[in-house]
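Collaborator request log, item 7. Partner lab (contact: R.S.) asked for a structural prediction of Alpha/beta hydrolase to inform their binding assays.
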Amino acid sequence: MPPGLSSTDVSFKGFGGLTLHGTMLAPQKASRPRPGVVLVTGSGSGVPREHLLTEAVEFARQGLAVLIYDKRSVGYTRFRRSYSELADDALAAVRALRAQPGVDPAKVGLWGLSEGGWVAPLAASRSDDVAFVIVVGGNAMTPIRQQLWNETSALRRVGVSGSLIDQGKRNFARLGADAGLFAEAHFDAQAVLRRVRQPLLGVWGSRDLQTPPGDNPPLFARALERGGNTHYTFRFFAGADHAAHVSPDGGVTRGAALAPGYAELVGSWVRDVTSGRLPNADAPTPPEQDHPSTPAPPSAWWESAWMQLAAFVLFVVAFTAYPLVAVVRRVRRRKVTLVGRWARLLAGTGFLAVIGLFFYLFYLMAAGRSPDPGSVIAGRPLPWLALQGLAVAATVSCVATTVTWRRAAATLSRGEHARLALLVIAGAVFVPWALYWGLLLP
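Returned to partner:
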């Protein structure tokens, strides 16, 4: 423990009666009860309290009693989490800190990093016990919009542009949310902020590569003021990363130290607001960000997960059935017609485009902020160009199959007509599907 600070183990009951364990750091000597702050960490299951030890030490050196605690792993997974439950955990931590000797219970607030920037305001909106709110790398937008910006920015940094980002990545993220694979995807952060009455400090690093540092501050201000709250302060730290740490490489790698002046800002701001000196809409111009974020609303019925599944089943059935029957016909040494050649090309290219699209987008999603999309030519990765080539070939083959089928209609059997009808229907559906996913767009 750094000299001049004390450390006290604290346990409390969070949501559902789960026992959570933490540590309070505070100055050893104080002439009067001190303000306190509970630190709420970012995303991840079971994040240990040590993850925020640097912040806790530096804030304690500013005269605050600081509580850090182990984040829950119960009920929190990649596909299931509840900001409401996490907010209840945070409020339980506030109650525990308010009860500690040497802490002024009227001056205890919440600090939230990243995901905690959604959780801390939600907790504050539920309780007058919270004296103030601090968000670092916080979002006043939906989690899906933030995550989409995060992932597409990583692709842009390696030279990717165009329909892969504008259509493919965006629609794949929305599909995942529709399928329940993106917990809290459409959490309404602005509705929560409109209910926050406590003074709020927002901190962003100018090189935040995970949260849009230019888009979010105006969204925060708009939501707070619509709720009648003008007691907010925004500050931006040049060259700092998502957590307002010094970054040696423009935000890609997090340094150990906090940005110069950040801890001092927190200390002085908390002392001011807990002494009745409230800020009044103190919001300088936010830093420029490399690319704007894009709204990602819930899917309409025609693009929903169920409609995508129906289209996928149609493609798999139609694009595999025709060549399988063709193989049987070839074994039986039936004559191969011009219609059959175009139809098999449609089936082959369509099937590969559909399967390849989902495999490639899933690979990019799994890569997160460290993508390797392949060699990039004119903003398009080679795998994406290959998928686009397949989609163009399938579209041309669909037209050619339809034309040659009509010309040869009188010579074809009833079974051949049925096979071609199913295939052409799948091809006709494939065209708008490929446009939706960006395979037929630049």
